Amino acid sequence: xxxxxxxxxxxxxxxxxxxxxxxxxxxxxxxxxxxxxxxxxxxxxxxxxxxxxxxxxxxxxxxxxxxxxxxxxxxxxxxxxxxxxxxxxxxxxxxxxxxxxxxxxxxxxxxxxxxxxxx
Amino acid sequence: xxxxxxxxxxxxxxxxxxxxxxxxxxxxxxxxxxxxxxxxxxxxxxxxxxxxxxxxxxxxxxxxxxxxxxxxxxxxxxxxxxxxxxxxxxxxxxxxxxxxxxxxxxxx
Lengths: 119, 108
Hints:
The complex is a heterodimer of chains A (119) and B (108). Chain A is mainly beta. Chain A has no helices and eleven strands. In chain A, the strands form two sheets. In chain A, strands 2, 4, 5, 6, 9, 10 and 11 form a seven-stranded mixed β-sheet that branches. In chain A, strands 1-3-8-7 form a four-stranded antiparallel β-sheet, with no helix packed on it. In chain A, a hairpin with a 6-residue loop joins strand 9 and strand 10 (106-109). The radius of gyration of chain A is 13 Å and the shape is globular. The N and C termini of chain A lie far apart (39 Å). In chain B, the strands form two sheets. In chain B, strands 2, 4, 5, 6, 9, 10 and 11 form a seven-stranded mixed β-sheet that branches. A four-stranded antiparallel β-sheet of chain B has the order 1-3-8-7, with no helix packed on it. Chain B is globular, with a radius of gyration of 13 Å. The N and C termini of chain B lie far apart (36 Å). In chain B, 35% of the residues are buried. Classes of the chains: A mainly beta (119), B mainly beta (108). The A-B interface holds A 35, 44-47, 50, 59, 62, 95, 97, 100, 103-107, 109-112 and B 1, 32, 34, 36, 38, 42-46, 49-50, 53, 55, 87, 89, 91, 96-102.
């Protein structure tokens, strides 16, 4: 079964750090670009970050730029998001999502992991 | 950055109704537009990609159209399973991926 499974969420204090992980299975992970997308409670979807197949190209939303680092380990079929200097407004469910190659849409999503930033 | 605006924000409809949701981009995105369905507590599900291409496994009552800055998602005959929130999403190489604010389809 093709799937993505996130982990690493939790409760963290403002200014703290968290590393999210996304484990891929059922497909050749190294052949696909992947993204992080988040959704604050009761709000819409917000694209967060992108990484190319090799990891050589990354993009970030302005809201997390300078505070987050996306990376991947193709040998371990894993995607990561290191988040530093966390703020209350970073509270959200974080999803990893696979890019449907040339179509540029997100065809496979994980179930999400909740990050809560609160003192 | 490219902004995506969906309308309406909320839509009340009955089973069997024809439903149309509109998404407008702040600048031309050609046909780089996708539509997703999300149910509470679940991840979004891809319905339409490249404006009008139906994702595998998605019922044919869903269709998409448009290009440039104006796009529509149509559900030809609303079914009980279709009550959900729908998002459009654009792709542009210089302003990667942005979502609309969502349209909630409610039971009338």
